[in-house]
Design goal:
The complex is a heterodimer of chains A (255) and B (86). Helix content of chain A is 33%, strand content 20%. Chain A is of the alpha/beta class and 255 residues long. Chain A has one domain: Thiamin diphosphate (ThDP)-binding fold, Pyr/PP domains (Rossmann fold). Chain B starts with a strand and ends with a strand. Classes of the chains: A alpha/beta (255), B mainly beta (86). The structure holds thiamine diphosphate, iron/sulfur cluster (3 copies) and magnesium ion. The site of one iron/sulfur cluster has 16 residues of chain B, from β1 and α2.
Chain lengths: 255, 86
Amino acid sequence: MTVEEPAMHPVGDKLPSLLQSGEHDLCPGCGEPVAIRILLETLAELGLSTSTIGVVGIGCYTAFARTLDVDLVQALHGRAPSVATGVKRMQPTKAVFTLQGDGDMVNEGLQEVLHTAARGENVTCVLLNNGVFGETGGHMTATSVLGQRTKTSLDGRDPDYHGYPIVIGDLLAQLDGAAYIARGSVQNAGAVARTKRMMHKAFETQLAGEGFSMIEVLTMCPTGWFVPTAEGPGYMGETLGQVHVMGELKTRRPK
Amino acid sequence: MTSHMVTVRGTVHIDTEGCKGCELCIPACRPAVLVMSTDVNDTGYRYPELLPGCTGCRACLDVCPDFCFEVFKYEHPVEVQVESAR
Ligand SMILES: Cc1ncc(C[n+]2csc(CCOP(=O)(O)OP(=O)(O)O)c2C)c(N)n1
Ligand code: SF4
Ligand code: SF4
Ligand code: SF4
Ligand SMILES: [Mg+2]
């Protein structure tokens, strides 16, 4: 096409400033790295690059603990909100977040996040919800929706046998200690932009000392859902997105 | 052969070797100037290639799970002559 490139300026760097390498072994079409970019860009944009401590749960996203340029603590499965509580109480000037999956937060460690929210701990929990235990092979989790096919519900989640999903964001929003609860997704570029604004508000809630904040991000897991990568976003909108509905569930911040 | 003019407002640099061929960037691109290659990279994945008409919107960068895009905006739009498909 063109012979030489005209004068131009960058509007988007390959890597967020807090990520040391773009290489990772997560599957093609996985939504988790997209959500992690939103998180890292938000920390940099809020001037928190050198004053943040993250507490990482256990799931596919844990692979990023090797490349995030942020101080991190590795928690046992599901315990990140409790570890974050301790970190924040000892280091109140730091921004403290957890990075967890649905299996980690809603199955393994449901009571940790419930009590952390109820106590109104001034931390931000970041939940990557894909409705499966991705890393261990795609088993059903507490957030899997009715009818969802997983490794352990091949004919779809059946309420008579598997019970009903826990809609964690809505549950947490009912607790008085929760100041900001929102659910975004990485389904498409518009959803990414909306989720970025929610991520900002979640951390602004913490910086203002208003109490517990949680930002849930629906992320594609084409491997665990048995769908082609290009169909991941559409599948998510028709299944998980119908039950775990995108939007601000609780806020004391201006809209 | 007919041709038409296309306004180009930006461009992307694509790390084709880092690409895992998921195709999430393709529908993200409003002007539809990303198309999947027929060739494959060293890992065996097809990757996106840029046609004239990028706006520098960075939607591709925002949805790519593998950090393959770097996006630039031109200081001034450029008109490019392209051959029409039919
Ligand atoms: C106490 C304990 N139980 C089980 C495991 C095995 N395990 C590792 S990752 C994982 C699934 C995590 O699922 P999720 O949090 O949803 O993350 P995803 O992989 O889906 O991103 C499990 C069960 C473990 N590491 N520790
Ligand atoms: S199993 Fe699912 S969550 Fe894990 S890397 Fe693959 S697509 Fe992502
Ligand atoms: S920057 Fe926007 S217009 Fe350019 S290739 Fe990416 S999505 Fe398409
Ligand atoms: S979104 Fe990224 S990894 Fe997927 S096809 Fe496009 S460039 Fe490749
Ligand atoms: Mg999961």
